[in-house]
Design goal:
- By secondary structure, the chain is of the alpha/beta class.
- It has two domains: about 160 residues, D-Maltodextrin-Binding Protein, domain 2, CATH 3.40.190.150; about 120 residues, Periplasmic binding protein-like II (D-Maltodextrin-Binding Protein, domain 2, 3-Layer(aba) Sandwich), CATH 3.40.190.
- It contains twelve helices and eleven strands.
- About 5% of the residues have low confidence.
């Protein structure tokens, strides 16, 4: 056999052995606990969703799935940690609208690239926001709120949990849709933002339903509308902004499970299969209806497609409003 022929044969054999090795490794996966990284503090909707998935996923895989909270930097800290993790299927990330779609539009430099660094496992859930005002504000619906804002253009302040956050973008989109002016007041988290709203320091907030609902039920806050396309079982009497005279308005938050990009396809497929089974259980739907989260599992490649559609939807607003952040 000629030298170059021997080399080709050797390379081919190495390729076959490597393929067999990956296949065997994937078939034995997992052999140790997994880490599910949540880029937010414990207790919020993302964390609750992660923990609800982690337990049954651990049972299905035969290994514990440990939730690790890595908050900070508008999800950048957690996302960057997972992007740099070993692509062996043992580090999984709770991606979101912020980490996978919006951050690349807000920051000129990110330590991670959602496209180059992550592979989708499955879409998980989506939720609208709720437009809430203090009970003392003399408005009961979107029409009355818009009329008030037009009468007093400098008197309406809206709270968010930070610049560039989906809650901030929902407020900016509302301004564009209605033609009103509102002053944005960013806070460092939902607790201080809601405290300001309850104290009448700001007049409105587009908030996660989970955090505002206790105050809605107590009568301290009034829900004017939802930012999604449909009403919620949790708030059946609250209409959408689109149905309140502004068709086409839509905003919200969503979550997806992703892994480091080079994770073997067989492992991604296994995770997708198990997550889809878990989210398809009737008890899971009932549980998350109570958190205003719609479960939306699907094929792994839907994560990238969904993220691209979301980027296209928000890019113009972010550009026109000049919203830019630095890590």
């Amino acid at each position: 056999m000629k030298p170059w022929t021997r080399r080709l044969a050797g390379w081919a054999l190495c390729g076959v052995l490597a393929s067999l090795g990956v296949s065997t490794w994937a078939q034995s996966y997992p052999t140790k606990p997994l880490k599910l990284v949540v880029p937010y503090a414990a207790g919020g909707s993302t964390d609750q969703l992660a923990r609800a998935i982690a337990e049954p996923l651990g049972r299905a895989l035969g290994q514990a799935v440990v939730v690790e909270n890595k908050p900070g930097g508008n999800t950048i800290i957690g996302a960057d940690a997972v992007a740099k993790a070993s692509p062996d299927g043992y580090t999984v990330f709770m991606g979101s609208s912020a980490s996978l779609a919006v951050n690349p539009l807000l920051y000129s430099k990110l330590p991670y690239d959602p496209v180059a660094d992550f592979a989708g496992v499955s879409m998980l859930a989506a939720s609208p926001l709720v437009m809430v005002v203090p009970a003392s504000l003399p408005v009961t619906n979107v029409k009355e709120f818009v009329e008030l804002a037009k009468r007093k253009p400098d008197a309406i302040n809206y709270a968010s949990v930070g610049n560039g956050n989906p809650l901030h973008l929902a407020g900016e989109l509302f301004k564009v849709a209605t033609g009103i002016e509102m002053n944005h007041v960013p806070y460092n988290g939902s607790t201080p933002a809601l405290t300001a709203l309850l104290g009448n320091q700001v007049q409105v907030m587009f908030d996660v339903v989970l955090t505002s609902n206790p105050h809605i039920q107590s009568g301290k806050l009034r829900a004017l509308a939802l930012t999604g396309t449909n009403r919620l079982p949790l708030l059946p009497n609250v209409p959408t902004i689109a149905a309140s005279g502004y068709p086409g308005y839509e905003a919200g938050i969503w979550f997806a499970m992703v892994v480091p990009k080079a994770t073997p396809a067989a492992i991604v497929a296994r995770l997708n299969t198990e997550v889809t089974k878990i989210l398809s259980q009737p008890d899971m739907k009932a549980r998350f209806d109570g958190l205003a989260l719609e479960l939306i599992p699907g094929p792994a490649d839907e994560v990238a497609k969904f993220s691209q559609r979301e980027q296209a939807r928000w890019a113009r607003l972010i550009r026109d409003k000049g919203i830019r952040l630095e890590p």
